[in-house]
Amino acid sequence: MTATQDIYPQTPTLDQDIQQLAQSWRHPRGIFGWLSYTTHQAIGMRYIVTAFVMLLAGGAEALMMRTQLMHSNNGYLGPERYNQIFTTHGTTMMFLFAVPMMEGMAIYLIPLMCGTRNVAFPRLNAFGYWMYLFGVLFLYWGVFTNAAPDVGWFAYPPLSGPQYTPGKSTDYWAQMITFTEVSALCVAAELIATILKMRAPGMSLNRMPLYVWSILTQSWMIIFAMPAIVLASSYLLSDRTVATQFVNPAEGGDPLLYQHIFWFFGHPEVYIIFIPALGFVSSIVVAHAQRELIGYTAMVLAQIANGFIAFGLWVHHMFATDLPQIGEAYFTASSMMIAITSGVQIFCWIATLWSGKPRLTTALLFVYGFIAIFVLGGLTGVILASVPLDLQVHDTFFVVAHFHYVLIGGAVFPLFGAFYHWFPKFTGRMMNERLGRINFWVLFAGFNLTFFPMHILGLKGMPRRIYTYSPEMGWDQLNLLATIGAYIIAFGGLLFLVNLFWSRKFGAIAGNNPWNADSLEWAAASPAPNYNFEYLPAVTSRYPLWVPAEERTFVTGTRTDRREVLVTTLMDAQPHHRYILPRPSIWPLIAAICVTVGFAGSVFNGWYITWGTIISALALIGWFWPKRPLDPAHD
Q: Which of the four CATH numbers 3.10.20.90, 3.40.630.70, 3.40.190.10, 1.20.210.10 does domain 3-634 have?
């Protein structure tokens, strides 16, 4: 029995319609065809796979750092190499793994959850991925040509300026930021348009899944936050390459201006990573507790409030600079206030689990681990919001511990839970639950063994960003524990990979909805075809798959012989008009290559910006040139 028959048993699927849909939405063949894909499943999976490779790279860099700090006076890494590795590690995890991974999951899941066939701008979607990939290659080209950046993932001037870091390594870092943020802005624009204008009929705003709300919030945050980091990195790059004086104090610039602009992006960045993880948790809790979420309205408002308040916290990264005390008091209050909105969501999840019938699956285990770790990380965040205490532990390993408890506990644990939860939708097979439980406990134990001792190291005065220390400091034992924990985390990652590849080939056949989940992505086949749904669903409930089968409805009147989607109204998702999506095209890749020529070349010669602009304009002409349809399947 197919997914459509499960939902709409009174209307059998017509073979002719399915054949036409498959023909209309088929992928082009050959290598040029592969480079032309624009379906959201293909692009979303490319983001996920590339970002996962970056997670492995960043994890390997972290192991190298922990090996160096395992004991005092270690000679495994020299100071220059250590600086390069911790810079590349932070840059990889923040810019090349965390945000792109959350974006990739959203690109894959949002059209399915919203009951449509693709994202609003499929060619822009493909262009965004190529820009992200070229940013990855640009940074790691510098790494493998002995020009890795060594100024930290924050690149504070004046140490990142031309006076202290000659050469091109910092320029690579600064321009890589532009690649990844252009990509992020592309994704944000297409997801906002998809969520607001392409939801299934009847999916009004108060019926959207909480994961969809989380992505809508994240996307708006990207729109407002990402231009700040592009501005900061452009100031730094122009000071280094064309002798401007924005942030270089040797030429009269203001390095504190850079810090303000950077952290105006940098703190929302944490929530840009974290808020989609909250959406993962909500979806997992509802599906695995088999209960409607308690406090839906409070959860939505708390997520939106998280997004707003996150923009008012950036100065708590700068308490050690010379700031007015009244300003410090304001940012202390804001930093403590955001704990309230996060706490609301945690209490709603606990209440839902308490009153439901939770099944102790691997996905739900990762949710439990997330709650435990994130609460501890949040408490240390409230502690660091206090200016007098922050001044004592600023730039120590206490901050490193807090940061990783919030980001790994608050984002990576929900992400692993999401992998276990949606793996059947991605592949049509189940992941091994027994190995998954072992995977969770290894990661949970390794994580706490790695990062909890860092709180104590920070209180003992161990500064961050040092490559060695003397035995008289008394830090050896705790650093050894942290290093052992890091290798345990690596073993947990290896277990996950074993489970993933084994399950991909030999896992149990999942069926369309193995968790008896509530949201529309489980109405499609597993894995979903390029067109997602044989018939577009209509929604009458916040939990559409828990509505009795005889009460479910679907959309009629859309054509199956072309890539047609339904556009709906913003508030109530009433049908408005039909829209024809463009066919697959190689032009997004060509445009990304042209933009890359301008961005990458400008590191060496400013004239490349001009030439890159000209050839990019030519590529855009090809992209938007009207094309006469060859046949109805290609309309």
A: 1.20.210.10
